[in-house]
Amino acid sequence: xxEPTPPKFAMxxxxxxxxxxxARALILLLVSVLLISAGLLALQWSRDRGTAVAEVEMxxxxxxxAAIESSMGAxxxxxxxxxxxxxxxxxxxxxxxxxxxxxxxxxxxxxxxxMKDEQLLRDAxxxxxxxxxxxxxxxxxxxVFDTPRGEFSVRRKVNEPVWTKPDWAFVEAGxxxxxxxSERIEEGVLGDYALDLGDGYLxxxxxxERALGLHVTHGCVRVGAKDLEAVFKAxxxxxxxxxx
Amino acid sequence: xxxxxxxxxxxxxxxxxxxxxGAETQLDRYSALLQEKRALLRESGxxxxxxEVAATKSPYILFDPAARTLxxxxxxxxxxxxxxxxxxxxxxxxxxxASPEQIWKAxxxxxxxxxxxxxxxxxxxxxxxxxREAGLLYSDPNQLAAQTGVVPVDTDAGLLGVDVPxxxxxxxxxxxxxxxxxxxxxxxxxxxxxxLRDIAQSLRLSLAGLWGGGDSRGSVPRLSLYMTTDSDTAKxxxxxxxxxxxxxxxxxxxxxxxLIASKGAGSPHNGSRPVVN
Lengths: 244, 277
Description:
The structure holds 2 protein chains of 2 kinds.
Chain A: H1 8-15, H2 18-55, E1 57-61, H3 65-95, E2 101-106, E3 111-116, E4 119-129, E5 133-135, E6 142-144, E7 150-153, E8 156-159, E9 162-164, H4 167-172, E10 185-187, E11 193-198, E12 201-204, E13 215-217, E14 221-223, H5 225-234, E15 240-243
Parallel strand pairs in A: 2-15, 4-13, 12-14
Antiparallel strand pairs in A: 2-3, 3-4, 4-14, 5-6, 7-15, 8-11, 9-10, 11-12
Chain B: E1 6-9, E2 12-15, H1 17-22, H2 24-54, E3 60-64, E4 69-74, E5 77-84, E6 87-89, H3 100-106, E7 111-116, E8 122-123, H4 141-148, E9 168-172, E10 176-182, H5 188-210, E11 223-229, H6 231-240, E12 246-249, E13 257-261, E14 274-276
Parallel strand pairs in B: 3-12, 10-11
Antiparallel strand pairs in B: 1-2, 2-13, 3-4, 4-5, 6-11, 7-9, 7-12, 9-10
């Protein structure tokens, strides 16, 4: 029996109906996304691969085995010479290491270690610099409250130290600069002892022992009363202090 | 006696696998010696740099990519326990581990700390009427939080309590960046977004290369290392590093090399001369 085929016009009409068009657009979008993603992945892969290939270094080698053998002799000699030179350099570095009694201050962990050669004599929790910056609103100057790093030595040992307040203390507190020097003197805030490291930096006591272990100072090293007393008695003027 | 055969290239002869098989022992020994020399030369460079700094009062840092540690030294002595990292990678999520080859090339010389993210928060003097009563010297704690990403530490009145970030970057003068990260469990959405970021970054680098800008130091750092650790270590490290401090890298084992047969009879020094860098 004859079955009429749908007219071409009807097919076209069905394909260009709204759901059909949406479906086609979605397929097109999906294919585009897949192609772009594949392209991006290929780019990344080629970049990684390119880096790896570019890293390989090439060295010339003599083409005949006799020449290789003689070249190897020279290389062996060079290697031995280099190894000996490196051992000497290592020895030189080793000879610079601290000896005797010294202090190590770890600003990251807020710890102080009293050492004698390789032996740990005392371990104390301390406070070190906050790292904040303070600018003077009235003058073009600023301060950064870091504990300095490096090798220092004890220049003075002070019993019952007195704090001479520097300019930043007044700027920080929002106060006017004092007219008289005596207005800068403050007693009893630095504890019973202080070890002077120079440039205004001290290892001293604190009224705020519960802040030990925090980065809260203006650059000085604050130590608890008992630890400070022990360290003060154990070291002399000239003792090295290593701050890291 | 084994005769070496190979393929002629612009740089000389690339040894074929047959030739390698024939002279395996001799070439292996030669290659091993070359590698030993490269390692010793690099070690010598590091030791000379260290000896120079160790003779001064300055602190310095030793970065060991193989051991994944940083240690702080003065006068040649390690004074601070090493900071260890659980991973060192070349992308944010550790998909591309840092290869010794890339580190070998990028970290030849010492690095100088230029900037640490979240460092140097500004302390604003208080309003005499309100600041001191509140027990904080920061006149605006929100400003501090905006600068460092963290809140002020609650301490006694008059103390400069400030915390530091646990995720931050360290920029070096030599165009190298260390990204310090703490381990996090990412959601599916975060993973997808980070993957897209990686792809976008990759595309950007590839396009920069197409335009001849692959080496443009301004936008693409020479080396970006993503180093994952715990939050205490990240904070300690942030406090410990100051701009101007120097970092030396312990050289990893030298990356593999390719031997090229030279056309003429080789002089004793030919073997140590790199043809391609």
